[in-house]
Amino acid sequence: MSSLPASLVDELSALLGDGWLTGASERAAHGNDNSRRSALPDAVAVPSTREQVVAIVRACRAHRVPIVARGAGTSSTGAVLPTAGGVVVSFDRMNRILDIRAGDRCVVVEPGVLNGDLQRALAPHGLFWPPDPASAELCTVGGNLACNAGGPHTVKYGATRDNVLGLSAVTGSGELIRCGSATTKDATGYDLTHLIVGSEGTLALIVEATLKLAPLPPQRASLRALYLDVASAAAAVSRIMAQPVTPAMLEFMDAACIRLARDVGGADIPDAGALLMIEADGDAATLPHAVAVLAHAARGAGLLSLDTAPDEIASEKLWAARKALSPALRSIAPGKINEDVVVPVTRIPDLVDGIQALAREFDLRIVAFGHAGNGNLHANILFDPDDTSQDARAQAALPRLFALTLALGGTLSGEHGIGLAKRDFMVHAFDPATLAAMRAVKAAFDPDGVLNPGKVLP
Amino acid sequence: MSSLPASLVDELSALLGDGWLTGASERAAHGNDNSRRSALPDAVAVPSTREQVVAIVRACRAHRVPIVARGAGTSSTGAVLPTAGGVVVSFDRMNRILDIRAGDRCVVVEPGVLNGDLQRALAPHGLFWPPDPASAELCTVGGNLACNAGGPHTVKYGATRDNVLGLSAVTGSGELIRCGSATTKDATGYDLTHLIVGSEGTLALIVEATLKLAPLPPQRASLRALYLDVASAAAAVSRIMAQPVTPAMLEFMDAACIRLARDVGGADIPDAGALLMIEADGDAATLPHAVAVLAHAARGAGLLSLDTAPDEIASEKLWAARKALSPALRSIAPGKINEDVVVPVTRIPDLVDGIQALAREFDLRIVAFGHAGNGNLHANILFDPDDTSQDARAQAALPRLFALTLALGGTLSGEHGIGLAKRDFMVHAFDPATLAAMRAVKAAFDPDGVLNPGKVLP
């Protein structure tokens, strides 16, 4: 059944015992992700120690067998699919929080710990780890590290790469390396730490991470601003980001999203050309001022209404429209391509205009929402995958969306990564010399190309 | 006079015209830095365009001639010394600010612009670039990028690596690459941007950078806290860093520094075991609260006195002791090794205790001060280089200081980099596998080893 060399199977089953899985259902369970694609591995390895990870990589490398690291499989880009077969390495058993160092504002973890579990362990210390993807309750820190995950709080606190101090990782050569340190300042040699973050398991398997933490703000308050059009909302985003009170979240929804949230999601919200949800965090003494400053910046040409929620309960009500959106999207369209492009914030109007033009040209429903403070919009192409013509039009619109993003000085992904889904568009994002440099880096870490082959680089 | 191949000289002098310098004084002027070492280049190239930089690298590579990029030569580690001869590439003529994009909170610059000139150009837009090394008026942005420079504001705003969005750079293969983008979120391919930052000209020559900017806070206020001993001050640092009001600066001075600032520098300050200077920034509405919160965190066991400066004039007076320190150090010791180690903040007391033990053991005067919020202390070994015995003891104490730092979970450099000065200690900071990975990265960018040979990696 497995096409793995017998000697490799013998070696790894002896090494891993019940952490070596070859059953059909176990292989299938490790052969899919949130991209709705699938591909079967030949086996699943579930190591308990870094030494086992080293041994797995060395054994697979000796046989040129592909190795695909896997957290919880929430990738939306196919990044964890074993498309070339081989061994999926699951980090389910390496999920410990090793050391909460509150005085040093950092935590040492194994990669398999869930983001949500980590946050709960940190909260009693008054600390949190800033990356907050929508899948936080399900996804692992290792997966967050692999794809440089973000989330709404990124606008103030940074994405995953901004919140990692050090790593231990096993390269494609089967060598355990240690980079970075438990310090917030480091000018010692090459920064391998931030290079490995976002490399989607193609350079090394992370076996331990030292994460940078932030103090939990005691209170939050929200603003909801409705605008006549996207240009007015985008101008407000620039004004908000140009003053010193950085919002804790700054989320955008276009007119189509607002209608969906109301008509399908049941949110209490009037029609508008665009919406901004703005969150401030702080404490009782500063929050009113932060809200006032953010409200002032949100005001300007094209503002239709501005609602303030002074506390968390009122906030929940204001955020209802944003929260109603994702279920509403799921309910109206059986197929959804959730794109994750980024543009400089001043180009948001051009991006949204361009998306609307694409929707007309390809006769598709495309809605846009997302993390406006970072210019990171999720363009959702809604279609019926059983309708061959719609499916073809949706696939045809995608390259045009990427071309538009790049023409605006943006980039292909803000927080989902490249995986399989955008691999073939990398040639448009980077010139041949830059791609060649990335390939040379890949070869430096993984000379035989055994780590997650076929991902990221075209 | 020059040992360069005649055909290379012909090619580069034709390419660069008056940007090709071979006179003895010009070579000498480009053969030193702030490390008090020197080494003569064979020639100095002063390109005006990125195309010229590409041509210089390709020509030198063809002849295996070393290339050393140079900003203003303020490196304190010998990083810009052409110890293997060859061509120094000065970025004096590539010093333009290309595009201030206030709405996108970024600026596009050439590497030769001075940090201080950039700040003055940004101030009218209400923005600043956070890296603020002591040499800001003299040093170039390219130099800041090369060594991942920091400064006192790093504790709140991050160091150079944290404030760069994208780069154009010429690799050792003579290829122009473009990485990153004018966006604050990027999960697209390998992060070459932050890898090149801090690589000290050994991977690529930066020809353009897109820098992340921060809004200028309208007001500042300062606190001066004196403590019985270092342990009390370090505990206060942990308390300050564990709550949500991050100080804009958090500087430390040990007892010896306090005495020097008073007795030699003339500062009005009583004796104490340790001093913290704490700066808050914000606006009129929030600053009093920030000061109150920071003062609360500064209070605790061992606090001797706490002085508040509510405005900039009073702040200047409080900061006088810190500012008097560097001139005082220069006036009392002809020789000074200004080390730049980093430890996790909770290990500051162990570091300072260890430094005092080294001072006793080697019969040397060693004082410690620096950026406590990041655990980045400057251990200054004061000695007379003309006194052979003292000089030898100072050199012998250095490896012990590094060993102490590493044993405390720290790292060799926080903001000065490695250069020549710490190159041979890299084997203690990293295991062979990690150094091998760094060497593989070096080979990927610079296969013939022409870029700044002999620096960073042992």
TrEMBL record, chains A, B:
Q: Which UniProt keywords apply?
A: FAD, Flavoprotein, Oxidoreductase
Q: One short Pfam family name for this protein? A: FAD-oxidase_C
Q: Name one GO molecular function term.
A: FAD binding
Question: Does Coiled coil appear among the keywords?
Answer: no
Q: State its cofactor.
A: FAD
Domain FAD-binding PCMH-type: start-end pairs = 37-216
Where on the tree of life does the source sit, at the highest rank? Bacteria
| Family that this chain belongs to | Belongs to the FAD-binding oxidoreductase/transferase type 4 family.
Protein name, please? Answer: D-lactate dehydrogenase
Instruction: Look up and give the organism this protein is from.
Output: Luteimonas cucumeris
